[in-house]
Specification:
The protein is α+β, with helices and mostly antiparallel strands. The protein is 55% helix and 17% strand. It has three helices and four strands; from the N terminus they run H-E-E-H-E-E-H.
């Protein structure tokens, strides 16, 4: 799963760079409808960026799917699942929901929730910088 996640992140970063290069070379525009940013681009850099973005999403789905297949399965009819030496399973999860520019973080424990809040704040800062640097000159 880790290699699919890494491939997804790399492809996403390259696609963003290609789309930014397309906009910088006047082959596209960035706009804002209410609080939702959008990109209208044309030319080979924009097409390559869009294709790589789709491949990044595909890699993320394959990574999630392969992680589910690699999970240990229960064997036998005793009703006891696979567990570690203490008999407890530990799973941690978290996420960030962006409603416009506002991040809403959640997690299964305090450390995960704090980490997701840091990610949410970083996404907010990036969104603000993109708005100020790219979108603001068009307004």
């Amino acid at each position: 799963m880790r290699r699919w996640w890494l491939a997804s992140v790399v492809l996403f970063c390259v696609s963003v760079a290609l789309m930014a290069a397309s906009i910088a070379s006047d082959d596209g525009q960035v706009g804002l409808i209410l609080i939702f940013p959008f990109i209208v681009a044309w030319g080979p850099l924009a097409v390559a960026g869009a294709v790589l973005l789709l491949l990044a999403v595909l890699c993320a789905f394959v990574g999630i799917w392969s992680a589910g297949e690699a999970a240990p399965r229960e064997v036998g009819g005793s009703g006891e699942g696979a567990a570690d030496a203490t008999g407890k399973r530990e799973s941690r999860f978290g996420g960030v929901v962006m409603i416009g520019p506002l991040p809403i973080a959640f997690g299964s424990d305090k450390e995960t929730a704090k980490g997701m809040m840091i990610v949410g704040i970083a996404l907010f800062v990036i969104l603000l910088l993109v708005f100020l640097v790219i979108v603001h000159p068009f307004i």
